[in-house]
Design a protein that fits this description.
153 residues, two-stranded parallel ribbon, alpha/beta, three-stranded parallel beta sheet
Length: 153
């Protein structure tokens, strides 16, 4: 398993837990707000482990305080939606050729109850998680016939 995080120390802590439980894992740094780093992450996983069976999309980094449509800075909105939406699309785009080769593979997108509800001043998070749910449904339709299950939890 390639454990990827913008916080390499956190990735290394998770790798230690996996190894302590008897698993095989490596830590990798990537900023998923950068498309080239997402591509490199997928290519590294395949190069290190020889195949790709599972992709888990679990990225969110609160760049700036969230807010409403009136108070949320454009830079914060752009960053949050890049992390929650574009990085998910990019990772699936680069992973699909490898997942499809396996014939029985999975994509798990981490959503939230916040994709169905709202909270004051949480425009980017609520919108992003709602998009994760919608993207997951669309990807399940697009890739289910190719042997790739797509689910959100």
């Amino acid at each position: 398993m390639l454990v990827t995080d913008i916080d390499l120390a956190a990735a290394e802590e998770n790798v230690a837990r996996i190894r302590d439980a008897g698993g095989v894992a490596e830590a990798w740094y990537a900023d998923v707000a950068q498309q080239s780093e997402v591509k490199s992450m997928i290519e590294t996983a395949v190069a290190r482990f020889g195949r790709l069976d599972l992709l888990v999309n679990n990225a969110f980094n609160s760049y700036e305080a969230d807010g409403s449509a009136v108070t949320l800075p454009d830079s914060a909105l752009d960053y949050a939606l890049t992390i929650m939406i574009k990085s998910l699309v990019w990772s699936v785009r680069y992973a699909m050729p490898y997942l499809e080769q396996r014939g029985k593979a999975s994509i798990v997108n981490i959503a939230s109850v916040h994709g169905y509800m709202v909270a004051p001043g949480r425009l980017s998070y609520e919108t992003g998680k709602a998009a994760v749910i919608a993207l997951t449904k669309q990807m399940a339709v697009d890739f289910g016939t190719k042997g790739v299950r797509v689910n959100a939890i």
